Amino acid sequence: MKKSFILTALLALLLPSIGKSQFFNIFTNSDDNKIPTWVQRAQEGRAIDNASDYYYGIGVSSESQDKANTKAREEFAKSVEVKIKSVYEENVKARGKRYSEKIDISNTALTDISIRGISITERYYNNEQEKYYALMQVTKDEYSQIFKDELDKEQERQIAQATADLNQEKIALEKEKRSNLIREDKTREKVRHSSESSKIKSERKMIRKATLKDKLITYRSFLGLAPPDKVISFRNGELPTGKHAVSMHLGISPVTIENLYYGFQFWKMTISTNFKGEGGRFNTQEMMIKFQVMPSSGEFHRVSASFGYVEFLHSLSKLDDLESIEPEYSPFLAATMTFPELFHSFGSIYADTRKVSLGINSYPTYDNFDDTLSLLFELHYIGHPRFRNRFGDAILIQAGVRFKTSEHITTSFIYEDHEMFVFGADYVF
Q1: Are residues 282 and 361 in the same domain?
Q2: How far is CA 387 from the centre of its chain?
């Protein structure tokens, strides 16, 4: 115990007499006597010993050992720059032109290859200067072989990569060829289909034209016929064949005046007035202006259309209350369409705010008697209650037969208003 105490006391007395730097030099290499020769020569700006036998690079950094290592590699790469270019050129020349076309190593890649397989030889830290040192060196004979080996590896790698790329290009090219073949097949199929469709359309068009031509020949006479401008009680999209048109309907039993009509035509317009009777008295009156906008258009199913304005009065039979009668007004639309194949017929339509009317003039015996005989049919929907028949029917059906007795006169026998037979006469001049 006494001996331990004495040793401790002696050590305490000796420590102050030892210099601070000398104490820490036990754990560092900063003693000038221990500085590596290559560091000393670098500090003095001289080359390493036997520099002609080596390729080398020295790196110095105040920041870190890694920075010093990096600078050593950079300096080493500079020292071998001329050597690696000459070795690379000789290597490429030996392998031939075709090889050089496939392999192209940039200067940056050569610099990287130049330090492959070479490690930092020595490292040193100077504690007083607080600097890091790194040395990379290799004999020139060793380096030549190392660089050639690394260059061969890089070139073989590029050859393998080029071969793989070529194979990928071949695969991509083959896929593209197949895709092109598929597209070409689709295009040919599309063209063929389009050609067949065009051919079918052309054939159908030719068939339709031929059919239409046959129909035009078959129904030539009927298509040349002037369509009637009325069915039974309403006027359609046609205009009368003369300037003046007069019409009268007479009840047969008992004899009563059921309808009087007069129309005057000029240019493409008709101005007309119409009186309709009920119980032997006139009950309604119409004043109409009609303008034809489409005169018999089309080759086969010809269409005529007109529009205009109509003024109408009702309850004229109440003579004691004439002052309370107020006129009403409405635009109207009327049209006619030819249906030669339907028993030589003309279809008609009329519409205003009071009613919508459909009608047909059919000539079933046209082939034998031309337009001498026609069958008449009307269907009305009458929305305005004051213009319905005395039974208040909203749906009204009327039918009859018409005879053309001369070029200007036609007569007819009609069943009207769901209650009476009427004789009609029409005169156009």
Answers
A1: yes
A2: 54
Total domains in the chain come to 2
Task: In the chain, count H helices and then E strands.
Answer: 10, 15
Same domain, 230 and 141: no
How far apart (Å, rounded) are the C-alpha atoms in residues 151 and 143?
Answer: 12
Say if 383 falls within a structural domain.
yes
Q: What angle do CA 407, 411, 413 make, to 5 degrees?
A: 155
Q: How far apart are CA 391 and CA 133, in angstroms?
A: 125
- Average pLDDT across each block of 10 residues of the chain; the chain has 429 residues. List them in order: 45 40 36 77 87 90 93 87 76 63 65 80 91 92 81 78 82 88 88 86 88 89 92 94 94 88 95 85 88 92 96 69 72 96 96 96 94 96 91 95 94 94 95
Q: Are residues 138 and 246 in the same domain?
A: no
Looking at the domain assignment, is residue 156 inside a domain? yes
Whether residue 359 lies inside any domain: the answer is yes
Q: Could you tell me which residues come within 8 angstroms of residue 395 by beta carbon, excluding any fewer than 6 positions away?
A: 379, 380, 381, 382
Dist CA 187 CA 19 (whole Å): 96
Radius of gyration of the chain (CA): 59
Do residues 136 and 73 touch, judged by C-beta distance below 8 A?
yes
What letter represents residue 3's amino acid? K
CB of 369 closer than 8 Å to CB of 384 = no
Beta pairing partners, 335: 305, 349
* Last-in-domain residue among 148, 166, 184: 166
As given in the structure block, the two tokens for residue 285 are: 């009156």
351, 339 in Cβ contact below 8 A?
no
Question: What is the span of the domain harbouring residue 97?
Answer: 24-166
CB-neighbour burial class of residue 359 (10 A; exposed 0-12, middle 13-18, buried 19+): buried
Q: How many residues does the chain have?
A: 429
Whole-model pTM above 0.70? no
Q: Two tokens at 42?
A: 């670098």
**Among the residues of 219-306, which ranges form H helices?**
220-223
Q: Which residue has the tokens 């009368």?
A: 240
Residues 6+ apart with CB under 8 A from 414: 232, 249, 376, 398, 399, 400, 421, 422, 423, 424
pLDDT of 109 reads: 72
Q: Which strands sit side by side in the sheet containing 122-126, from one edge to the other?
A: 54-61, 131-139, 122-126
For residue 185, what are its two tokens? 């097949």
Structure tokens at 266: 């000029």
For residue 215, tell me if it sits in a domain: no
